[in-house]
């Protein structure tokens, strides 16, 4: 019955939310509250549902790992271990002091502070993905803080066990052993993954069995989850590490496609399980205090993250967006409070229930936070529209990103695809209205002249993976190409051309990746006509690909020549 109820809810919730233009997360939360033990009691086994729902978070973190890489994660180390650590420590101290001032013992206050300092990885990351903000700057900062919070769960749970008298040695020794064990587990997973994952997937791919390939993907996810759980780490950390390793293989796209249905359904179940935690009778009895606690928690966490981001040199608009997105309580608060109250009897049952309701309600309002973050970010955004370009310190941590010159319809389409793949990017445009509208949506677009090397330097172009020219003015495109090739000759440059003649001029100017606009549109139109006339899709696709290869063959030869010259020297 619970599974049937969930599937019926999933089928009904998503279309309704899409029609209402709200996040499906909100629909799942409301549905969980309605069908749960505090509502219509259609589902009463919340523990069983919760255990299954955890797999939604596991699959989400695995997918995020697939869309990152170890190199990109290494570039974020200052935000993860600097800003992330500061957020946990400062927020836990501030919330703990408030709890102590309201009459709680220092022990209870510390647990309350640590539990509520953590935010919801599942909700925040899903909302960033839905809004295509994961590659935006505030999306990357939010992810860095959330990743450290997942790492911090281990010492927090150990501290709870020590306070409950379960530890046999001193706190420092126990913490040292736990951290050593956690580090060893991470190193072991990364080392074993590098040695085993690619050969195993290569062997399985050789069977040409989609079922076996999917089974191997599930084994990698669940096996690494079990490994980190056994080491006392977050259940989702192992799959995240596995995703990072598989992101460097040729199998990442097939793996992501295979697990996508599991991730969506199980995440929906997770959000419903959060909604089931809401006890409406308690909320009604203590409505004023609970409302004040939820508002106070979110305000305090937002302000703390905002200030810390400013101290770490982030702009005001990025800082406030990050602060608002991380203002809620998280799923790990349920774990910490549950152990402290039920296993070690450190927190009174009434106080524990109050904390769980506050954390759950703060998560329930999280789907509205992207809108609030965007509005506040717009108000605090500095003047980024001067010809000098963006401030260097705002983009200095970018690495392996794509620089886009021109943010018209082509530039926007490319940026949207890059965002879906979580590829960091930044764009320049000389239309102030275009840049203002894009930044109001949280997109990394700045006013600036792409033909000027000093402006491009502010985009950290020397660390960029590629440069894309989408300008519709052939003369401006040629000048931009000249500026890039003159100053950064080894950078990959992709150029949009109007027609074949324009493409030849750009090729003569040094571009080796040119896409003629009229040529590609004619191929697509011809393919659709042939399909409409009854030509099989596979035959049409093969014909289009053959013509495309013939057209781009000279470009491939040009692309290989420099490499041959370098080998000759």
Can you walk through the features of this model?
- Helix 8 runs parallel beside helix 16 (about 330-345) and helix 10 (about 210-230) packs across helix 11.
- Helix content is about 70%, strand content about 5%.
- The chain is built from 26 helices and six strands.
- Strand 2, helix 21 and strand 3 form a beta-alpha-beta unit.
- It has helices spanning about 1-20, 25-35, 45-65, 70-75, 75-100, 105-115, 120-130, 135-165, 170-205, 210-230, 235-245, 250-275, 280-285, 285-310, 315-325, 330-345, 350-365, 370-380, 390-395, 410-420, 430-440, 455, 475-485, 500-510, 515-530, 535-569; strands spanning about 400-405, 425-430, 445, 465-470, 495, 515.
- With about 575 residues, the chain is mostly helical.
- A six-stranded parallel beta sheet has the order 3-2-1-4-5-6, sandwiched between helices.
Q: Which terms summarize this structure?
A:
6-stranded parallel β-sheet; single chain; globular; mainly alpha; 569 residues; 26 helices; 4% strand; 6 strands; disordered C terminus
Topology:
Elements: H1 2-20, H2 24-35, H3 46-66, H4 70-75, H5 77-101, H6 106-117, H7 121-130, H8 137-163, H9 171-205, H10 210-230, H11 237-246, H12 252-275, H13 280-285, H14 287-311, H15 316-325, H16 331-343, H17 349-364, H18 369-380, H19 392-395, E1 402-405, H20 409-420, E2 425-429, H21 432-440, E3 445-447, H22 453-457, E4 466-469, H23 474-487, E5 493-497, H24 500-508, E6 513-516, H25 517-532, H26 537-568
Parallel strand pairs: 1-2, 1-4, 2-3, 4-5, 5-6
Helix pairs in contact: 1-2, 2-12, 3-7, 3-11, 3-12, 5-6, 5-8, 5-14, 6-16, 7-8, 8-9, 8-15, 8-16, 9-10, 9-11, 10-11, 14-15, 14-17, 15-18, 16-17, 25-26
């Amino acid at each position: 019955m619970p599974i049937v109820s969930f599937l019926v809810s999933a089928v009904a919730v998503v279309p309704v939310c899409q029609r209402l233009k709200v996040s499906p997360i909100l629909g799942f939360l409301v549905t969980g509250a309605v069908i749960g033990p505090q509502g219509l009691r259609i589902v009463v086994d919340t523990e069983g549902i919760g255990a299954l729902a955890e797999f939604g978070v596991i699959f989400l973190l695995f997918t995020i790992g697939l869309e990152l890489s170890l190199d990109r994660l290494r570039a974020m180390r200052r935000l993860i271990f600097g800003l992330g650590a500061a957020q946990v420590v400062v927020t836990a101290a501030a919330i703990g002091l408030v709890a102590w001032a309201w009459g709680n013992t220092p022990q209870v206050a510390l647990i309350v502070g640590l539990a509520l300092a953590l935010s919801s990885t599942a909700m925040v990351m899903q909302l960033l993905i839905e809004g295509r903000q994961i590659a935006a700057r505030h999306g990357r900062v939010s992810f860095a803080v959330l990743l450290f919070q997942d790492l911090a769960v281990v010492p927090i749970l150990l501290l709870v066990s020590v306070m409950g008298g379960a530890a046999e040695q001193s706190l420092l020794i126990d913490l040292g052993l736990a951290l050593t064990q956690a580090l060893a587990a991470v190193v072991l997973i990364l080392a074993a993954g590098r040695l085993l994952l690619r050969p195993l997937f290569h062997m399985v791919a050789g069977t040409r069995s989609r079922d076996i390939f999917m089974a191997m993907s599930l084994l990698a996810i669940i096996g690494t989850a079990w490994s980190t759980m056994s080491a006392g780490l977050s259940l989702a950390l192992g799959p995240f590490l596995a995703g990072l390793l598989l992101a460097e293989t040729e199998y990442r796209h097939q793996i992501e496609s295979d697990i996508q249905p599991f991730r969506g359904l199980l995440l929906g179940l997770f959000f419903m399980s959060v909604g089931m935690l809401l006890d409406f009778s308690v909320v009604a009895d203590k409505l004023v205090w609970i409302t004040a606690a939820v508002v106070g928690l979110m305000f305090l966490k937002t302000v703390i993250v905002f200030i810390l981001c400013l101290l770490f040199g982030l702009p005001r608009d990025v800082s406030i967006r990050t602060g608002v997105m991380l203002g809620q309580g998280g799923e790990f608060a349920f774990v910490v409070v549950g152990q402290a109250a039920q296993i070690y009897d450190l927190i009174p049952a009434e106080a524990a229930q109050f904390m769980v309701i506050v954390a759950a309600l703060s998560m329930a309002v999280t789907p509205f936070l992207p809108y609030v973050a965007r509005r506040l970010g717009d108000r605090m955004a500095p003047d980024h529209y001067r010809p000098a370009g963006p401030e260097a310190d705002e983009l200095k941590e970018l690495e392996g990103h794509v620089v886009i010159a021109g943010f018209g319809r082509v530039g926007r389409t490319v940026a949207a695809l890059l965002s879906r793949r979580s590829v960091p990017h930044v764009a320049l445009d000389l239309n102030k209205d275009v840049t203002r509208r894009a930044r109001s949506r949280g997109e990394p677009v700045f006013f600036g002249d792409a033909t000027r090397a000093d402006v491009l330097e502010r985009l950290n172009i020397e660390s960029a993976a590629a440069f894309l020219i989408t300008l519709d003015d052939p003369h401006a495109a040629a000048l931009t190409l000249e500026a890039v090739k003159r100053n950064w000759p080894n950078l990959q440059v992709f150029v949009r051309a109007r027609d074949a003649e324009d493409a030849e001029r750009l090729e003569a100017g040094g571009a080796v990746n040119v896409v003629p606009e009229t040529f590609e549109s004619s191929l697509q139109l011809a393919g659709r006509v042939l399909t409409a006339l009854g030509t099989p899709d596979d035959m049409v696709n093969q014909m289009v690909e053959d013509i495309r290869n013939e057209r781009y063959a000279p470009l491939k030869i040009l692309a290989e020549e420099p490499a041959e010259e370098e080998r000759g020297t």
